[in-house]
Amino acid sequence: MENGYVILPRLLSDEELAAAVQHADDLLKGVAWSDNDFDGRRTRRVYELLSRVGAFEPLLTHPRVRALVTEGLGEVHQFGMLFLSAVDPGQGAQALHFDAGVYPLPRDVEAEINVIWALDDFTTGNGATLIAPGSHRWPADRRPSRDDLIPVVMPAGSAVVYSGRLWHAAGHNRSEATRRALICEHVLPWLRPADNHTLATGIEGLRSLSPELRRLAGIAPASPYHGFIGGQDPEKWLHRSILD
Ligand SMILES: O=C(O)CCC(=O)C(=O)O
Q1: How many angstroms separate the alpha carbon of residue 99 from the centre of ligand 1?
Q2: Amino acid 240: pLDDT
Q3: CA distance to 32, 42, 92, 108, per residue, from 56 (Å)
Q4: Domain containing 59: what range?
Q5: Are 181 and 44 in contact (CB under 8 A)?
Q6: Could you tell me the CATH number of the domain that includes residue 127?
Q7: How many domains is the chain built from?
Q8: pLDDT tens, 73-110?
Q9: Contact between residue 242 and residue 203 where contact means Cβ atoms under 8 Å apart
Q10: Ligand 1 test: best mutation among 94, 97, 115, most atoms within 8 Å of CB?
Q11: pLDDT tens digits along 194-219
């Protein structure tokens, strides 16, 4: 609450980490570098992960992370942007930003709680995420200086959970190896999430998700009527239409 982030070291078992890394590598096959400076022209990104969750499921639903996100946003929330990121050698530091900056909300509204899962060790040399501790409480006109930043150094299998108001950026990868991460935003249920998960996942894809992931895909109504389809809870609608 005070610093705007917490590092949860070594949350994954060796088996879970190895499976997640293998899944990441499978998804990254044939993926080209991004075509813009913000994402990074030496960075590969994979989106639409809810239609190919695979070995990422234990990361997306990890109870320690889920508890923190629920504490910050309440029981009902949804994924915002969700992507696999591979920061390749030579990728320079990303532009500093805070994720909730996409919403025209006052700075004191906590609209997002986000997670970066380290699939490789995050080091000062390979572009560990840079954060400005406490910056989630800064006024709207304050920007971080170099002295405000620290790297999120953590071993593979760890996660950093942080406020969507925290200033941060991917660091400069000066190493010889790729730095892979699973980045998972969670937003309040009445906001439009950055990614369109329902369209990307499709009706059959949504049905095949676990109930928890389906809720996080945006199926849980924000409140009665808010998010309904055909006048009812989309969870009921999805299952009723199987029977039709
Ligand atoms: O990869 C990272 O360390 C952070 C990436 C990030 O903040 C973003 O792309 O929005």
Answers
A1: 9
A2: 82
A3: 21, 23, 27, 32
A4: 5-243
A5: no
A6: 2.60.120.620
A7: 1
A8: 999 999 999 999 999 999 999 999 999 999 999 999 99
A9: no
A10: 94
A11: 999 999 999 999 999 999 999 999 99
